[in-house]
Amino acid sequence: MIHVAAVGDIHFGPDGAGTLRPHLEHLNERADLLLLAGDLTRVGAPDEARALADELAGVEVPMVGVLGNHDYHSDAAGEVTAVLEDIGVTMLEGDSVVVPVNGSTVGVAGTKGFGGGFVGACGSEFGEPEMKAFMAHARCLAERLEQALTALDTDVKVALLHYAPCADTLAGERLEIYPFLGCHLLGEAVDRGGATLTVHGHAHRGTERGLTAGGHHVRNVAQPVIGHAYRLFCLRSDDGADADPECAVPALTGS
Question: What is the pTM of this model?
Fold first, then answer.
């Protein structure tokens, strides 16, 4: 069994020093890896990234992350990425990493993703240059995700996103902002790439559980949604798209 911990939308800053670390004390005993689903900082300031890095520095399991929209706000995404990579977080954008776990392999393909909406209410690369650029960005990131997933030859594949790949996990958010919370192109990439589990954040008022059009499990792990320091998932190398990834163990204090 492979135990995957995941959380997004931590929105950490220097004034939070010491508040996250206690909730991660037993993570090494519970999980084989930790996924960070974007919006790790408030406005993408390097000092915010350093404060988060101090909290994560004691985590012994492999950590894999993607950036979120907040992490780009200060035009210092490169610095934020470097700070987190310095303490061992593998940061992804259109690429992947393979993590060995108990004789099995977990492949994580990651991207921030982007908006665009969902089938029946989505944008297209038509009209003004600004609209073409918006949707082209969404398409390009989805294509890179699909390529990264497809290239993985691992026992388990996980897609790590910030934006949502399906509308299911946005339920609770205003319909008017769905196009800014996710894109069907990401869901199509997940289906074609064959992810056992997809996790994302971004939708603070959304719903935790969902499925892509192809039946692959999606989980919104935004911290305001899960209400804990992380959510724990259990995966097996023989899990298919219809296998429920929820851990069959009781919730643990601090998780």
Answer: 0.94
